[in-house]
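Researcher: Here's the sequence for the chain we discussed earlier.
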Amino acid sequence: MIKDEFYYLDNSMKKLREEVLFNIYNNVKINHAIFNLTDLDIYSDDSSFFSRLSKSVRSSFLDNRVILTNEQEECLNVLSKSNLFISAPTSFGKTFIALEYIARNVKKIDDAVFVVPTIALMNELRKKCYHYFGDTYTLITSDAELEQYYSESKKIIIVVPERISTRSFQKYLDAKNIDFLVYDEIYKLNSNKGNNIHNNERLIKMNYTYKYLIEKSNKILLLGPFIKNVEFNRSKIKIEKFITNLNLVYNKIIFDENFNDYYGTTTDKRFIYFDSPKNIVNFLERNIPALPYVEFDKNIIEWISNSIHPDWYYIEYLKKGIGIHHGKTPIFLRKYIENEYSKGNIHTILCTSTLVEGINTPTNSLIVYDKPRGIFELNNLIGRVGRLNTKKPKIGNIYI
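Model: Thanks. This is the structure I predict for it:
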């Protein structure tokens, strides 16, 4: 029998995991029994029969190089029987669970719909889906693609909330049931930044879209960051809750009032968080980087100079490997900065929450320059530091 709620919030276990992760990242020998106890055996190099058998059972259908944790397997087990909400830290692999579920149920999933909060995440997820399912599913992210491939039998539709309410998508979904719905960053349905009319209208539209989608879906997976208290009492649809604090990476938090080594390098890439674009400008006026120019795409510099302004301050910082990313940065330039950061041509991004909420690009270090708007946002920021790498784990640094 499925329980209504699955809580994995043992604080003593959390503390033990942190100690184990610290030892893993510092190459300290660990007893294999400890790996099993803490659900961190994905880091274990134990080659015994039982260890290999356990890992083979948890081997991913999606990628045979990936071994799922026991808690990830439990999520998939619950999802096979019921709708599910997963609340977990960023490193838990929530999106991977959604993709894994599709891989395990390809024959019975024809129409899958992912709702993500930003266009950047939509494009990022499209790349992953193309890599894993490009031969099986047609990927849809726009009205034009939906019209072109309307009659294709197997589709993965990836949209932001505003796009799913367009006439083309409404027409398609009115005539269909959704086999599998994945709604990411579900907490944003109850997140109203300010009381202006635009924010209120967007929030209403997002909630209407959510209600419309869950009522048309055969299977529902809701994803969110680590939130302890979530209720679905207003819906008649039964949704199990899986809430865990299992963190699979180790990050070191450093409090230093005198910290001033802000800018990164190609081997230590950094985000610097500010609470507003204005504070980024003020910071740059006080902290002019004495950095050399990096090897860079001269075409983009020329294009920006000709199309925007030759003296725009973004240009000088781009030449030094520094990107500026916030809500007022043109969208094309945001995407360019994200791509160049992932390649290593940009080593430092000065950003607001627009970046950390919008993409899953990992960073080696995070500098929290301004005070976040609460513990929730701070945890969301910290969750962007480091990414799971069982072969070459590397400590992420958070400077506050």
